[in-house]
Design goal:
With 180 residues, the protein is mainly alpha-helical. The longest helix has 46 residues. The two termini are 37 Å apart. Helix 1 packs antiparallel against helix 3, helix 1 packs antiparallel against helix 5 and helix 3 runs antiparallel to helix 4. The protein has one domain. The chain is built from five helices and no strands.
Length: 180
């Protein structure tokens, strides 16, 4: 899972690097006007930038499918089943249910934010960056922002996975104590 986080960070760095290459910090407001030199630089690097973004788009799609399946399996095949077993055996599952509820909520947010990111990146790749370099620049900036949001979602999911592990460990400790 740490590999996934590193990969997402690398993608954010690539997207941010593209913005820096065009000569603007992503912190500037979208109403900022690009200089003629910046617009020219965007036009000159149009095809290589689109190629890089296209590779990122394909890699992200594969990563999303693989990670999405893992996240879904953790919920349905691990958390939900374990919570149900505890409940069926009249054991205290409040902590594990609480964490899994938060996890499922975070997973839905991840799906929604990833969809917004993917749609924005797809729209950006369809743009004619030679004809509209400014629009292309701001589309990259927006996609990068959406990608950062997805990265935050992934971090939250991983924290909740750790929280669930802790809740299970706490349950096991309490269960062992009551069985003595």
């Amino acid at each position: 899972m740490h590999t996934v986080i590193r990969f997402i960070i690398a993608g954010i760095i690539v997207a941010s690097g593209l913005l820096v290459m065009f000569g603007l910090s992503s912190a500037r407001a979208q109403s900022s006007v690009l200089s003629n030199e910046q617009l020219s630089l965007i036009r000159q690097n149009c095809q290589s930038t689109k190629s890089t973004l296209n590779q990122l788009h394909m890699t992200d799609a594969l990563l999303r499918v693989n990670r999405g399946q893992v996240y879904e399996a953790l919920s349905t095949k691990l958390m939900d089943r374990f919570n149900a077993r505890l409940s069926n055996n009249q054991l205290d599952n409040k902590a594990t249910v609480s964490v899994s509820t938060s996890y499922n909520s975070a997973l839905n947010i991840f799906r929604s934010n990833y969809k917004a990111y993917e749609e924005r990146l797809s729209d950006t790749l369809k743009m004619d960056c030679s004809a509209d370099p400014s629009g292309f620049y701001w589309a990259i900036d927006d996609a990068r922002s959406k990608r950062e949001r997805v990265h935050g979602d992934v971090q939250r999911l991983h924290r909740l996975i750790d929280d669930y592990r802790s809740a299970v460990n706490d349950f096991l400790l309490n269960y062992d104590r009551t069985q003595r």
